[in-house]
């Protein structure tokens, strides 16, 4: 089973960019579809993007479409989330999650989760 670790979070000004990484250990991430989800204080968890194991299937939530890009490098066992034009409402803890099967549905259960990385967007 893969162990997932997120990194790359931090404090950024509105309009800025960050790239999050989700690195797997213990098993090849290349077998798994990987999603990014986020949870802001007092709000429900929101699925924001998912990528299939081979990278051909990708989906985004409307809230991040055209601003965020998900991509993966299976040789590095890593999935990335490039976040551009960040807004204060993007402030949340960001999680990556993995599952053996891919679905366009963003808000679903996944078998494996990371511990999360905090993103804060503020001036």
What is the 3D form? globular
Low-confidence stretches: none
Q: Multimeric state of these chains?
A: single chain
Residue share in helices? under 10%
Mean pLDDT over the full residue set: 96
Distance between the termini: 40 Å
**What portion of residues belong to β-strands?**
over 45%
Helix-strand string: EEEEEEEEEEE
**Count of separate DSSP helical elements:** 0
Number of strands: 11
Radius of gyration: 13 Å
What can be said about the biggest beta sheet? 7 strands, mixed
- What structural class do you assign from the helix and strand content? mainly beta
Task: Chart the SSEs and their pairings.
Elements lengths: L2 E5 L2 E3 L5 E8 L7 E7 L6 E6 L6 E3 L7 E6 L4 E6 L8 E8 L12 E2 L3 E5 L2
Parallel strand pairs: 2-11
Antiparallel strand pairs: 1-3, 3-8, 4-5, 4-9, 5-6, 7-8, 9-10, 9-11
Name some characteristics of this structure.
globular; 123 residues; single chain; four-stranded antiparallel β-sheet; 11 strands; seven-stranded mixed β-sheet; mainly beta
Describe the structure concisely for a colleague.
This protein has 123 residues and is mostly beta strands.
């Amino acid at each position: 089973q893969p162990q997932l670790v997120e990194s790359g979070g931090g404090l950024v000004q509105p309009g800025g960019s960050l790239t999050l990484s989700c690195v797997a250990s213990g098993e090849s991430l290349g077998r798994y579809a990987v999603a990014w989800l986020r949870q802001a204080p007092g709000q429900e968890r929101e699925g924001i993007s998912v990528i299939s194991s081979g990278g051909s299937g990708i989906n985004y939530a409307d809230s991040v479409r055209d601003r965020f890009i998900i991509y993966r490098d299976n040789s590095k066992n890593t999935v990335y989330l490039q976040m551009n034009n960040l807004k204060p409402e993007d402030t949340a803890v960001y999680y990556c999650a993995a599952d053996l099967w891919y679905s366009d549905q963003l808000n679903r259960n996944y078998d494996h989760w990371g511990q999360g990385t905090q993103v804060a967007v503020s001036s």
